[in-house]
């Protein structure tokens, strides 16, 4: 039986402190290359690139208990939002929460006017790759500057149109 998730957009300094705590937990537990990750810059500059109108953060709770988070932000490519920092705490994994967070971020990026949702992850992150492909993401060119060739880049058209939004779709 799937748990009932409550997904909440954040905007206050207190909310961003909660997000920061989850990012630190994520970096300590699940981050593949913490030494070279942009997560540290993100943490220092919160809300930074995750603030509206170019970004958003969603916190997930289950029964009032903090269960996970996710965010999106603008990229250097017009019309493309990168979904980032999807993290689910151990006790809440395998219940569909990563899917719910990702779907919520896709929806919010669409509502914000983005034409494409993009994700990048490590090639050995097979569970995440399977989820993203189930949600309709397909391979695209790198949307990072400079290109991070060791990562897998996926994109999902959001039904919006705008300049330069489909140039990365394979």
TrEMBL record:
UniProt xrefs under SUPFAM superfamilies: Acyl-CoA N-acyltransferases (Nat) (SSF55729)
InterPro entries reported for this sequence: Acetyltransferase_Enz, Acyl_CoA_acyltransferase, GNAT_dom
Residues annotated as domain N-acetyltransferase: 6-159
Keywords assigned: Transferase
GO molecular function terms attached to this record: acyltransferase activity, transferring groups other than amino-acyl groups
Pfam family for this entry, one: Acetyltransf_1
CDD domains in UniProt: NAT_SF
Protein's name according to its UniProt entry: GCN5-related N-acetyltransferase
Species: Albidiferax ferrireducens (strain ATCC BAA-621 / DSM 15236 / T118) (Rhodoferax ferrireducens)
Lineage: Bacteria, Pseudomonadati, Pseudomonadota, Betaproteobacteria, Burkholderiales
